[in-house]
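User: I'm putting together a small comparison set for a docking exercise, and I want a reference complex before I start. The sequence is below, and the ligand is calcium ion. Could you produce the 3D structure with the ligand included, as structure tokens?
Assistant: Of course. I'll restate your input first, then give the structure tokens for the complex.
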Amino acid sequence: FAHSKYEVRVEENRVNVEILRIPVVDLDEPRSPASAVVFEIIRGNDDRSFEITTDRNTNEGVLCVVKGLDYETAKQRVLVIAVNNEAPYMLVPHSQQVSQSTSSVTVHVMDVDEGPVFKPCLLRIDVKECEDIGTSIGRYVAEDPETGNSEGICYRIAPGQCNWISIDEKSGEVRTIRVLDRDVAEMRQGQCNITVLAIDRNGKTGTGTIQVVIQPGNKNYPRILKTDYIMCRDRKPICLTAQDGDASPYSAPFVYRITDRNLASSWKITRHNDNSVYLSPKGDIPFGIYDIPVSVTDNGGKVGETHVKVNYCDCMTPTECNGSTRELREGSVTLGIWAILAMILGSLLLLLILITICGCCGTGVMHRHVTDDCANHNLIISNTEAPGEEVMDHNIIPLQTTTDQGGYGIKTGDQQTFESVKGRGHTLESVKGGGHQTLGSVKEGGGQTVMDTCRYSYSEWHNFTHPRLGEKVHLCRQDEEQKHSEDYLLSYHYEGKGSLAGSVGCCSDQHEEEALDFLDQLEPKFRTLAEACVKR
Ligand SMILES: [Ca+2]
Ligand SMILES: [Ca+2]
Ligand SMILES: [Ca+2]
Ligand SMILES: [Ca+2]
């Protein structure tokens, strides 16, 4: 070493700065391993704040600060540095050991005004759930390193954080500014880290962190969810289960108790598990509805009372247990849905039959005695807003005939009757008046026109309708494009298989009444059809 003592100055808290270069003198050949030197700090660097390296070009030792020094802890540091060659010393036999060359370095740490320091830098504060707003939950203070106390320091909460707490500017006291509740969406995590600033007189700041942790509280009392029960003659115990919105330890295990003294003497509760119990009658009790108040206590001591309604009944006749219990109410609702479905299906079936009947009569090849009764079977399709009985037959005078997409209109005073070509082909003429109903059907198929009328009961009607039917037949015959004829042929839908009657068209094959026995075995949906076409 050129010198045995060095003194340097460095500001506190600075890191990775070179503070000293230490030259050495070596008489060995330069730039050889014998002259290359290695420095070592052999004392005063227990905290490893310093490091020394060798500059290969100059063979100087370079002393650096690698960790911030603290003026308040130590104002100066004294290091002892040793130097060696990379190559071991070659000792002449019987000579003295070469003494190691050392040098001491005194490092003076210079004071810097620093911001206040929180102790600890992270403070955890546990808060019970649902405490009142403004509850003091702790104190968080910082010290100014220069003064060693908290005087003159003011505290703030850095903006843009969870808005749960406030800190007193002077005292550092921490209070809640909201009701902390883990059920609130933003508090579901149950904790939040909040950065707090401390500012000293000179405006230097230091930061610390408060970790607020919401401890679950006993907010809810347990309740029995299902309260309506039926108990039959077999007296099978009822399982009561309570629920509590809290987490452990403010939830299960629950303690159940019948709070009504009279009922407690006739009913008993036996434990099933932490959550549920069995409720059963103690001795012989009469059938009837029992309203049993049951209190449930959670592990935190919070009590909730629920009324359990037990319908103790014979269950031999189901109606006996009806009406007062939830299950049965639900059952009847289900039944209601099926009833509605059945009604809809029934309506559709009725419509189907109606269409089929129209089709059957419309074919006109059914040489059955279709009496005037046939008109009573759903065949009157009329938009009539009829005056009814008082309108006499002779009042019906054709005033106006319009052709509108195959439909005719007949006006009879205030009474309007429609003759309509319905669906894709069957012509239905319906006239209603004075309680008399008549049906006229016209069909054209494959160029052949067949006209069939159900038997007219009244000659007046015959006189009136005959010329009109003739006109209609004439119109049908005029249709040479077959388009209309096709329509007539497709007068009803195929209704599936399985019927003994096969199809409605089979009616045309039956010329004798005796051969129609199959009508007795028709499926229900064809029965009305059969009855409409056959007067039995
Ligand atoms: Ca310091
Ligand atoms: Ca300082
Ligand atoms: Ca300061
Ligand atoms: Ca609870």
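The chain has four domains: 5-110, 117-215, 223-324, 350-533. The chain has five helices and 29 strands.
User: Thanks, that's exactly what I needed.
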